[in-house]
Amino acid sequence: MAQLTDDCFAFAGPLMPIAEMERLIAERVQPVSETATVRLAAARGRVLAADIIAPLDLPPFDNSAVDGYAVRHRDLDPNGETTLAVTGRLTAGSAARVPIGAGQATRIFTGAPMPADSDTVFMQEDVRTEGDAVIVPAGLKPGANRRLAGEDVKKGSLLLPAGRRLAAQDVALAAAVGLTELKVRRRVRVALFSTGDEIVEPGKPRPAAALYDANRFLLDGMLDRLGAKVTDLGILKDDPAALETAIAKAARDHDLVLTSGGVSTGEADHVRDAIEKIGRLVFWRVAIKPGRPVAMGVVPGGAGVAAAFVGLPGNPVAAFVTFARVVRPLFLRLAGANAEPQPKPDAPVYLTVQADLSLSVGDEPVAPEALADALDLATDHDTEQPIFLRADEAVPYGDLMEVMNRLRDAGYLKVALVGLEAMAP
């Protein structure tokens, strides 16, 4: 169980800003402590419990980045073509048995280890052959088309940090250094309820004044995406005693109890009263719309531990928003995951992208090739902050990719699409 004190969410202010809520969660909520070792196939979505240090270089050896010819750069004529004898052939998975000699070249393919003493690779498109010789042009820089051992990851460096919520690419990286298992934190256990006399299970008869339960399915899906182990406890009616009993029981073997509905100030909104009786409730007057009210607190779970409690509004849109801004950061903290903040640009730049690839910064049109200069002159924008692309109509896929590539080439690495639709290629 998570180690929570009964006042860990205490806040004395009149209306809590989102940033303050996130700070309290980060400072006062402790993650689950239990860990497990899982095989790579089961690691995606889990939270890494310990740093992983690279046991080898990636790539493990110098290799060719292209199909072509490996040479010694010092053998080349800087002023004209050079003819070299082709003395070997290397494919991926094979290794040269002897070093390359003076005036020699080795036919090499992408991913093959570089022959000893070679340092440069000519692309096959840039040379011509005559019998057992290859003729290479002047002008190629030393080390061209060669990938160095450790270029991606150095042996002994931090490969994956503790707290990383493992995505597919993280698991692939672990596999690339030969790992078969990873130490992860156990999954956060969540008890999920909907509340309200007016809520009916989909598929059952619906009285005229009732609504089918959508929130439980919404929240279950969002929890599943975060890697939670969810117990679906159905719909609780507006019965104070039944609410107290069900929530107290759920807190005994779950890290988080999550409900929707019943947390406002109406006479039939009993969830808030139930939590105040069996645990400690801090009614967070969070500065968020839609979203108020949001109830948050701690429910004793027995044996000196407690479960976190969050009661979300019954409106599905408000439930979605408050899950994203309240439950998600709390869940990630309980899971031991590193913070994954939403983009919060201080001064976002909005670019209008027309179908003909015309761009603008403010009211001034910008040619694509002048994009970087225009951004610097017009906005003095920090390249660490996101760039937003906007369009009033669908943009051809190729044009959109060109715009995004130009932005990234200019150093703007965080490019977001806002209401922008790309036509299929």
Structure commentary:
The chain has 425 residues and is an alpha/beta fold. Helices cover 22% and strands 26% of the residues. A hairpin with a 2-residue loop joins strand 8 (128-130) and strand 9 (133-136). The protein is elongated, with a radius of gyration of 30 Å. 34% of the residues are buried.
Quick synopsis:
With about 425 residues, this protein is of the alpha/beta class. The chain contains eight helices and 25 strands.
Could you outline the blueprint of secondary structure elements for this entry?
Elements: H1 18-28, E1 35-39, E2 52-53, E3 63-64, E4 68-71, E5 82-90, E6 104-108, E7 120-123, E8 128-130, E9 133-136, E10 146-147, E11 158-160, H2 168-176, E12 181-185, E13 189-195, E14 199-200, E15 211-212, H3 215-226, E16 229-236, H4 240-251, E17 256-260, H5 271-278, E18 280-284, E19 294-302, E20 305-312, H6 316-334, E21 349-352, E22 359-361, E23 364-366, H7 371-379, E24 387-390, H8 397-409, E25 415-418
Helix pairs in contact: 1-6, 3-6, 4-5
Q: What is the overall silhouette? A: elongated
Strand adjacency order, main sheet: 7-4-6-5-9-8
Distance linking N and C termini: 50 Å
Task: Summarize the biggest pleated sheet.
Answer: 6 strands, mixed
Number of strands: 25
Class from secondary-structure proportions? alpha/beta
